[in-house]
């Protein structure tokens, strides 16, 4: 069921056993009295050209007391009529404002590809402005090198270059009938957000020196991802003043598609342990 809200930036997906692949999405409803009270929260940020529904399938792998939210960038899906954002500061500021307005809960933030960089910049902003004790407990970055690394493989911003780059990233031969970029009507809908996101990435200039966040960071990636090889994941180690870990899964840039359950469970279990440690006043587990 979809409900109206004053918060267009976040979609919530119903979690728990039996949710199935068609977990209901809402534009951030309040949890009803009959619903399982949320004890933890996972916030996900999608890749360039992606949308909140990229994480809808996580719902069936999470316990019912975990609130699953995904950021919906403007210019796609239910926000298709809104102008896209082409500036990292503007996007990260908006996401930070949306997360800061949520009721307090132990939270993990997960970003994939471009979403990793937006997630990092969002946590940087939350660290500057959030009240003590309200920061996310963990930052997960996936399929992306750290912000201080040069990005030499970004595509040109013309239609053909964007489509070719996106197809290479998928690294899977898709029949033309299933390729959204081969359908003119869909291409017209997809290209504006794709171009805006890569404009954002091309113009992104992180702070020098880069800012380390005061929360643990875990970097994830696929062992066949040519854009972010496994040996590049430790570049995130310098961007936390807490603990750094990494994990490599079989697959390419979109390894998540084959390991959705394993990744969602890893995020949830790490968050649950961190929340329990915080509640007991203990350091987070190593």
Characterise the protein shown here.
The protein has 286 residues and is an alpha/beta fold. 28% of the residues lie in helices and 14% in strands. The protein has helices spanning 88-100, 114-129, 159-170, 184-203, 260-279, and strands at 10-13, 25-26, 40-45, 66-71, 107-112, 138-142, 217-222, 244-249. The protein has an 8-stranded mixed sheet with strand order 2-1-4-3-5-6-7-8, sandwiched between helices. Helix 2 (114-129) links the parallel strand 5 (107-112) and strand 6 (138-142).
The low-confidence runs, each spanning 5 or more residues with pLDDT under 50, are 1-6, 29-34
How would you sum up the global shape? globular
SSE order, one letter for each helix or strand:
EEEEHEHEHHEEH
Helical residue percent band: 25-40%
Distance between the termini: 39 Å
Helix segment count? Answer: 5
Radius of gyration: 18 Å
- Tell me the total number of β-strands: 8
Q: Please state how the strands of the largest beta sheet are arranged side by side.
A: 2-1-4-3-5-6-7-8
Give me the secondary-structure category: alpha/beta
Question: Main beta sheet: strand number and arrangement?
Answer: 8 strands, mixed
What percentage of the residues does DSSP assign to strands (E)?
Answer: 5-15%
Q: Mean pLDDT score, rounded?
A: 89
């Amino acid at each position: 069921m979809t409900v109206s809200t004053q918060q267009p930036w976040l979609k919530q997906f119903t979690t728990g056993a039996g949710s199935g692949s068609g977990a209901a999405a809402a534009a951030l409803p309040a949890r009803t009295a009959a619903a399982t009270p949320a004890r933890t929260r996972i916030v996900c940020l999608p890749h360039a050209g992606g949308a909140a529904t990229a994480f809808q399938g996580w719902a069936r792998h999470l316990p019912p007391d975990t609130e699953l939210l995904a950021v919906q960038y403007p210019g796609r899906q239910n926000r298709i009529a809104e102008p896209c954002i082409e500036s990292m500061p503007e996007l990260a500021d908006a996401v930070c404002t949306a997360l800061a307005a949520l009721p307090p809960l132990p939270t993990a933030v997960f970003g994939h590809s471009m979403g990793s960089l937006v997630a990092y910049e969002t946590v940087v902003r939350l660290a500057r402005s959030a009240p003590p004790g309200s920061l996310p407990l963990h930052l997960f970055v996936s399929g992306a090198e750290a912000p201080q690394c040069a990005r030499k493989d970004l595509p040109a911003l013309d239609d053909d270059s964007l489509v070719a780059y996106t197809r290479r990233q998928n690294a899977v031969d898709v029949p033309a009938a299933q390729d959204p970029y081969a359908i003119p009507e869909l291409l017209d809908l997809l290209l504006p957000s794709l171009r805006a996101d890569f404009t954002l990435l091309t113009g992104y200039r992180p702070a020098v020196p880069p800012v380390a966040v005061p929360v643990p960071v875990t970097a994830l990636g696929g062992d066949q991802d040519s854009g972010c090889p496994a040996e590049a994941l430790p570049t995130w180690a310098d961007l936390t003043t807490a603990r750094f870990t990494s994990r490599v899964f079989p697959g390419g840039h979109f390894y998540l598609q084959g390991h959705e359950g394993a990744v969602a469970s890893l995020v949830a279990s790490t968050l649950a342990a961190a929340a329990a440690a915080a509640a007991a006043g203990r350091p987070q587990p190593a």
